[in-house]
Design goal:
The protein is mainly β. Helix content is 0%, strand content 44%. The chain is built from no helices and 10 strands. The chain is globular, with a radius of gyration of 13 Å. It starts with a strand and ends with a strand.
Length: 101
């Protein structure tokens, strides 16, 4: 695993997301009730960027076809997606988020 520090990411408002690139991988940070989660920013159904979708509680909804994923586990909750999205461990260090890829 490799650690990646994202300055200021701990200040992402609850109920919102922030997209970042880490080692060439698009990662979406999601603040669910004050806890940050990191998922790969790609729908497993058709490759759409999830950062363009809506975060609803702990679920991100793909903007293309409405597939829904749980950002805590990566689980695909609705069709047309059947495969989970990759998740990554996150910890907070001051105002920064540290993501392990």
């Amino acid at each position: 695993m490799s650690e990646h520090r994202i300055p200021g990411a701990a200040r992402i408002p609850a109920g919102s997301t922030q997209r970042t690139e880490l080692d060439g991988l698009e990662v979406l940070l999601c603040n669910v009730g004050g806890t940050l989660y990191a998922i790969e920013d790609v729908c497993t159904h058709d490759g759409a960027p999830l950062d363009q979708g809506e975060l609803d509680g702990a679920c991100i909804v793909c903007p293309r076809h409405g597939a829904t994923f749980d950002v805590r586990s990566g689980e695909a909750l609705t069709l047309p997606a059947v495969l989970p999205v990759a998740t990554f461990p996150v910890r907070i260090d001051g105002d920064d988020a540290v993501v392990d890829l």
